[in-house]
Each structure stands twice: as C-alpha cells, then as structure tokens.
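Example 9 (inverse folding). The structure is encoded as follows.
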C-alpha cells in the first residue's frame, strides 16, 4: 500500500532527479522509493558504514562527492530553515 509524504529538496536537485527518472521511464516517487529501499535494506548503524557506490551509482551522472558535516544538529537545522526563506 502506498502512503504519501512531503519532502523538501533544492530545486536544482529536483530538476535533475526528474530528468533522470524520466530517462529511466519511472516516476520520481518510484525512483526515491527504490533508492530508500536500497539504503535501508542493510542494517547500517551510520552513514559512514554505507557503501556509497551502491546507491550513488543509481542516480549519479558524474563523480560523487560525499561530505560529512561536522556541525551540530541545531546549527544544521537553523541553516536548513534559513535556506528555505
């Protein structure tokens, strides 16, 4: 059974993801479902444990860059909301 959620992404990311999904003849919803399913299929305790190539190759069209932010959760949340203004 499908359930709806609301997510917010940078417009550039959405545009590229829609183009990618269209090339694959799937909806953006199904693309995200596939990616999230792959990410959560294994019992990774942290993002650092996740083999990045497994899921980045699903959507990347170029060299992937993996950045771990060292900011505190509160600072990241504040930064997120400020970008949304």
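The amino acid assigned to each position is listed next.
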């Amino acid at each position: 059974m499908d359930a709806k959620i609301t997510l917010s992404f940078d417009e550039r990311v959405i545009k590229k993801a829609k183009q990618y999904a269209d090339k694959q003849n799937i909806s953006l919803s199904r693309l995200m479902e596939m990616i999230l399913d792959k990410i959560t299929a294994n019992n990774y305790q942290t993002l650092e444990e996740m083999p990045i190539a497994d899921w980045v190759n699903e959507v990347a069209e170029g060299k992937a860059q993996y950045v771990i932010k060292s900011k505190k959760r509160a600072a990241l949340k504040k930064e997120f909301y400020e970008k949304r203004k």
